[in-house]
Amino acid sequence: MQKLQLLQNQFNPTSDDIFFHIVQAPPDPIFGIANAYKADTSNTKIDLGVGAYRTDEEKPYVFEIIKKLEREVVNDPTLNKEYLPIEGLADFNKGCQKLMFGQNSPLIASGQIVTAQCLGGTGALRVGFEFVKRHIPGDVYVSKPTWSNHNQVIERAGLNQFEYPYFDPKTKGFNCAGTIECLSQARMGSIVLLHVCAHNPTGVDPTEAEWLQIADVCKKRRLVPFFDCAYQGFASGCIEKDVFAVRKFAELGFQMIVAQSFSKNMGLYNERVGAVHIVTSNKDISARVLSNLKIVIRTICSNPPAIGARIAAKILTDEKNFNAWVEELKTVTGRIIKMRTLLKQELDNLKVPGNWDHITRQTGFFTFTGLTPEQCDLLTKQYHVYLLRSGRMSMAGITSKNVRYLAESIKAVVQKK
Q: Which residue ranges run through the membrane (predicted)?
């Protein structure tokens, strides 16, 4: 970063080539893996990089309910291409609130939740942190490790960030004691970024009792919770259970921010469907917050796109559509859970050195395997298995057909001296 900044500062306004000083930026690690996988001609290649759902035939999956509702939206003669309001589609925003906070949430009834449609989960994070920068600036505490784009989004918003020790490499589980100790020393009024469920990249989530400990330290230090909910439904398979943390913090009276995404649980990846929620203390303050949130959105993207939100709204506001979506989501998440079990069985059957219980203890799209960067490099170069060097593996890329080969490849790199 310092080297890049130094080269950027060498811009010479008198030069004929005004872009000569710009250096080649590194590729995004996740999308870089995806591109390398596509270029690989091996018949045994496995893509465990990008967190996008795949069928057991390794094909992208579009929800049947999404196909149906998309046709309805496209063929609706009453719809047009006019701009949505800055805060987005009203029905979508109302549906998002109920999905996140509960159908009968008193916060919704009292007008204490401000919601705006955003460009997917990343857009919700960007809008949320820009709002934080303008109105409640403070240090941001981020789990170690976290999704790499979190750090970049927070940096672009101009906020200082610190890490709290989330993952315990010895147990391959949640480091609750380390998290609590770190947050108990955080500056009063700091913001703490919390993964609602299916933590990316570790697949490790706090228990309900541990969430209460986190809530307690946040209360004592007056920390502002900023939840990122990208995988509702993918941790336990239950959309209600997976948002326990958000609803419990709301019940405890926290004012907070929540980023919500439908890229994964509705498969609306390229439609960029998300929302940001800000929970306030009363309706009057909500009105003031919304007015300022709209200014943030106006300067970032002006207003959001309509098609994806209209599809999602038809699910979130219609009981029949909602039930169909939930059943389909259970099938999707069930396959990922099954792949965890199969992979662990294969590793155990092959007597791969080490304990692999964490594969079935962890939840969601990802598993933090515990493999070293060197072992991950070898998996890719020699066995055509593509994953992050951190050892993060997307479980959606595992199938009943490639799980044995994957286990054999892991055994080979683990045993290699």
A: none
Is residue 264 among the annotated active site residues? yes
* Tally of structural domains, the chain: 2
Residues 96 and 50 in one domain: no
Looking at the fold, whether 379 and 304 belong to one and the same domain comes out as no
Buried b (16+ CB within 10 A) or exposed e, 377-409: ebbbeebbbbbbbbbbbbbbbbbeebbeebbeb
Among the listed residues 172, 264, 314, 344, the single catalytic one is 264
Over pLDDT 90: what percentage of the chain?
82
User: Do residue 257 and residue 383 come from a single domain?
Assistant: no
Indicate whether 212 and 127 sit together in one domain. Answer: yes
Range of the domain at 364: 27-61+334-415
The CATH code of the domain that includes 273 is: 3.40.640.10
pLDDT tens digits, one per residue of 32-47: 788 888 888 899 999 9
| pTM of the entire predicted model | 0.90
Give yes or no: 228 in active site: yes
Instruction: Please identify which of the residues 172, 205, 211, 228 carries the catalytic annotation.
Output: 228
Residue 43: inside a domain? yes
At 3, the pLDDT band (50, 70, 90 cuts) reads: very low
Q: Which of 47-51, 95-99, 375-379, 388-392 comes out lowest in average pLDDT?
A: 47-51
DSSP 153: H
Own/partner long-range contacts of 29-37 (Cβ < 8 Å, ≥24 apart)? 29/148, 29/388, 29/389, 30/148, 30/388, 33/386, 33/387, 33/388, 34/386, 36/380, 36/386, 37/386
* Structure confidence by residue, pLDDT tens digits, 345-382: 999 999 999 999 999 999 988 999 989 999 999 999 99
Same-domain check for residues 278 and 385: no
Burial class (CB in 10 A: 0-12, 13-18, 19+), 257: buried
306 and 253 together in one domain: yes
Domain assignment present for residue 225? The answer is yes
Q: Is 284 among the catalytic positions? A: no
- pLDDT (tens digit per residue) in 148-195: 899 999 999 999 999 999 999 999 999 999 999 999 999 999 999 999
Read off the pLDDT of each residue in 317-344 and give the average, rounded to a whole number.
Answer: 95
Q: What tokens were used for 348?
A: 């155990």
Whether residue 19 lies inside any domain: the answer is no
**114, 260: one domain:** yes
Give the span between the Cα atoms of 126 and 4, in whole angstroms: 23
Q: At what angle do helices 319-349 and 64-74 cross, to 10 degrees?
A: 150
